[in-house]
Design a protein that fits this description.
By secondary structure, the chain is an alpha/beta fold. The chain contains 10 helices and 8 strands. The N terminus is likely disordered.
Length: 339
């Protein structure tokens, strides 16, 4: 049976409060950004589809707060939050969604292919689970070079039923790699409830023992618990203790992608999870613990202003030019070697 290991705080005092305010800031920035991205999609300004993480922000923000700038992060195609929390400028992410030349990838990658190597955010991966063995590679690199860097790989519940998940876990455990696997279990693998196609109740945590790892289950809508759990796992990896597998249970407020209205989910279930929204929940806790309301309101106002500015700058930029399609594809900047 999976167990929840995050019960006692790992930090206290003024510094920990600053960490928690940073977590709140991260969640609010991501929420406001994603809501704006949704509005822009409806205006036909976001080209292609997009996968939003509205409702799941506590996982991204809580884990990010436990990492160092030189740690590695890998994400799924639902990766806007992870890119920005690793330092990717909001305007560059927004412009990428709009296919503008000032986008993070020059407007060529779009929503599902964000990368920000300056922050060691090593990419969003559109192929389910494809990044898990690659995260092992980054972790092995750190081990080989003698650094104490840690690699973190986020993935959805659906990835637990594919081969790459099991291969990556087995190799990481066998080689004792400094990697943390974080399952963002939002209960649905696209349109199908994960429980309908999985033999165990908890798709990640209940399988940890097969690889000699302890089962770790955490409330993915509780930012403090995510942070504390991630801090322990990252500390274990950094200290040579090997990998961890964390299952964070959460819920996306919308459909799988912007083309999905999510009508297959029971109304009562949606209402129950909306009541567990991680952002108002965290705000209420901070207020109860004595944080001044104006401090949190200032964070919210700053995030709203940043989103407005990023939107206007992205919309004003020129669309990506077709002439740039062959640039930044191969090491020499072109495809001439193929000819």
């Amino acid at each position: 049976m999976a167990r929840d290991t995050a019960r006692e705080p790992v930090k206290t005092g003024p510094d920990y409060l600053e960490v928690r305010l940073g977590i709140y800031r991260g969640m609010v920035r991501v929420r406001y950004f994603e809501k704006r991205a949704y509005d822009l999609f409806l205006q036909n300004l976001v080209k292609g589809t997009s996968h939003l993480a509205i409702g799941q922000e506590a996982i991204a923000a809580g884990v990010a707060a436990a990492l160092r700038p030189d740690d590695y992060v890998f994400a799924t195609y639902r990766g806007h939050a992870h890119a920005m929390l690793r330092g990717a400028p909001m305007v560059a992410v927004m412009a990428e969604l709009l296919g503008r030349e000032n986008g993070l990838m020059g407007g060529k990658g779009g929503s599902m292919h964000l990368t920000y190597t300056e922050g060691n955010f090593m990419g969003s991966y559109a192929i389910v689970g494809a990044h898990l063995p690659i995260a092992n590679g980054a972790a092995w690199s750190a081990l080989y070079r003698g650094t104490d860097q840690v690699a973190v790989a986020f993935f959805g519940d659906g990835a637990t039923n594919i081969g790459a998940f099991h291969e990556a876990l087995n190799l990481a455990a066998t080689w004792k790699l400094p990697v943390v696997f974080v399952c963002e279990n939002n209960l649905y693998m696209e349109y199908t409830p994960i429980r309908k196609v999985t033999a165990v109740e908890r798709p990640a945590a209940d399988r940890a023992s097969a690889y000699g790892l302890p089962p770790v289950l955490v409330d993915g809508n509780d930012a403090d618990m995510v942070f504390e759990t991630a801090t322990r796992a990252v500390g274990l990896a950094r200290g040579g203790g090997g990998p961890s597998l964390i299952e964070a249970v959460t819920y996306r407020h919308g459909g799988h992608s912007r083309a999905d209205p999510g009508k297959y989910r029971p109304d009562a279930e949606v209402a129950e999870w909306l009541a567990k929204d991680p952002i108002p929940r965290y705000k209420e806790r901070l207020l109860d613990e004595g944080v001044a309301a104006e401090v949190l309101e200032r964070i919210e106002a700053e995030a709203a202003a940043e989103v407005d500015q990023a939107t206007e700058q992205a919309k004003a930029a020129a669309p990506a030019h077709p002439g740039g399609l062959e640039r930044e594809v191969f090491s020499d900047g072109g495809a001439t070697w193929r000819r």
